[in-house]
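Submission checklist for the structure archive. All mandatory fields must be present; incomplete records are returned to the submitter.

[x] Identifier: Pyridoxal phosphate-dependent aminotransferase family protein
[x] Organism: Chitinophaga solisilvae
[x] Residue count: 413
[x] Sequence attached
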Amino acid sequence: MDIFEKLLKHMGPIGEHSERAHGYFAFPKLEGEIGPRMKFRGNEKIVWSLNNYLGLANHPEVRATDAKAAADFGMASPMGARMMSGNTTYHEQLEKELSDYMGKEDTTLLNYGYQGIMSAIDAVCGRRDVIVYDAECHASILDGLRLHPGKRYVFKHNDIEDCEKQLKRATELAKAQGGGILVVTEGVFGMAGDQGKLKEIADLKDKFEFRLLVDDAHGFGTMGKTGAGTGEEQGVQDKIDLLFNTFAKSGASIGAFISGDKAIINYLRYNMRSQIFAKSIPLPIVIGHLKRVQLMRQHPEMKQKLWDNVNKLQEGLKSRGFNIGRTNSPVTPIYLQGDIPEATAMCLDLRENYNIFCSIVVYPVIPKGQIIYRLIPTAAHSDEDIELTLKAFSETKAKLDAKTYQVAEIPVI
Ligand code: PMP
């Protein structure tokens, strides 16, 4: 059998809708400068689906630094992996500044977050070790688990009792095998917006021996007094043994980093396959990161503005009777009831008639009959953006509840 043949018969749970959805619900093209107003199919939309939390993407100093660094060095430089020929003073300076910001001894850069965290898990855990992880961890963590040759135990999302139960099992097994335990969770869960229970998990260190890896992709720059993340927010930054962050969200760039004690970070530096065998982050990106980190630290008003907008949006939704679940971060889900045709029609109405562009999640990603919109407020949104969006959701929800949305056709332009 041709290996491609079976693939093309079943395009996968999302791929099977590709013909109808491509270019609209999947792979849409947002055009113009990154910000709260962008063009979609030629018309301006209020955009709620970009993780540009602090509005850094179009900060004039960021744009100027990125452009100058690209002109000075080009995108090729440095060539090769860090270990071989791809190291520079800028890479090391960025690692130092990030360590200082995160309150950790050392940091190593990761050329991509996804591969980086997979590779960190792979480098830390051998076949005798046991991984205990939250059920709602990001795909990059789950793929890291797939590389793990040993045992893993999942605990129910943010359920500390279950976490403790799994830690008991893990402890017995690790003892019998002569291995250790790595607990993996997130600072902010990207779909529901609830914070991981870092403090409660860290407290379990009194009872069990384990190391804690936290993916704080959504917490970096947005949570904690200085923006150092969810560990800072919950007062347990020092209890996080390995702290993973990405520049793909509030950092408005690409690339990531992992911070911790000097010895373990140095171990990772010399043992993470995704870094040893892959090209180092280009210099213009590293220099751009230095500027971003400087702005994050020197301008707390960006985070304040983000949170003002988060509070306006979330309070506005709650006071209008929307269910936004258990979020305690900027991530703002809206939970509604409806089947796929109604969800599609509502989303179309929001996009075409109210000019609201946001992400929607339906079956098979979540159970049938549920609709989740996910809004990401940023420091760049205006009061008008928020007001128009609240009005649009109120009106479209009324139509959804009145069963007005029946069949949806994607308009042809
Ligand atoms: N972890 C989480 C929780 C994420 O949301 C993402 C996606 N940005 C990643 C890891 C992967 O990071 P990157 O985009 O930098 O590859």
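[x] Structure attached
Curator remark: The radius of gyration is 22 Å. The pocket of 4'-deoxy-4'-aminopyridoxal-5'-phosphate is lined by residues 112-114, 117, 138, 140, 186, 190, 215, 217, 246, 248, 256 (CB under 6 Å).
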